[in-house]
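Subject: Predicted fold for Phosphate transport system permease protein, 313 residues

User T.R. writes:
Posting the sequence so we have a shared reference for the thread.
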Amino acid sequence: MTTSTRPARRRAAAPRRPGDLVFAGLSLGSASLILLVLAGVAFFLAREGVPALTADPEEVTGGAGFGRYVLPLVIGTVISSVIAMVVATPVAVGIALFISHYAPRRVGTAVGFVVDLLAAVPSVVFGMWGLAVLAPQLGPLFGWLERNLGFLPVFGEASATGRTLLTASIVLAVMILPIITSVSREVFLQTPRLHEEAALALGATKWEMIRTAVLPFGTPGVVGGTMLGLGRALGETMAVAIILAPGALSWNLLGSGNKTIPSEIALNFPEAAGLRLSELIAAGLVLFLITLAVNLVARWIVARRAAFSGAGG
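User M.O. replies:
I've generated the structure tokens; pasting them so everyone works from the same file.
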């Protein structure tokens, strides 16, 4: 026993090789750099936004203080992002199920490649497409909604240009579709094969197998992917800025106006100075906190999904 334990002790006490030390240092430095950059951005936004937070309410845009100024922007940002998430999630889950369980291998690979390629399209291209193509095409639909559901505040008088919050939300849904689809596809592919075969062996159809084995296993991952897509939608700037027409906040999704925080910053930052610049930076701080909270919740859900898959495997 003595002779067998000595080599093990010598191996445990052996010094680490220089390559291991260098790699560990680079990894630690990279992780620390990310935290420093994040902290630096937060510090900059907080420092430059303080004048708007402490200024006389009458000096802030709108004359009622920073809270009254940024609240409509927050509401517009949240509404457009939630609508985009509600529209994109069912479509993304359907595409992911088609790729992972229904399509032949070659077809699924091709569809997956197209979906991933959609994520590489610049946001300004989506904005121009939404303004030049989608907005005019949605005009008849907006008119139908106004005639039949006009008694609801969200479907009031429709804009003739189609540059509405609902149009921007649909464009955002197309933009976040690849994120939700990619995460959902990978989660569905990780479903234990034995669970699927057990459901089929008990006489379940393919849809029943997906409903009882695949979807319960993948639901936490789908929720995590949806939250990641929501974080992308909250921070989208150019596409929303190109589509939305300037105007005041209203609950009418078919009317002009209803700006978001990113579009407000993008449209006004180049000419802003003094207190106006501080207002926009403080609005950016609010958006930073909202996006950070959404991504933290998403990471928590993804972590829970990993623990679930380990327990069920």
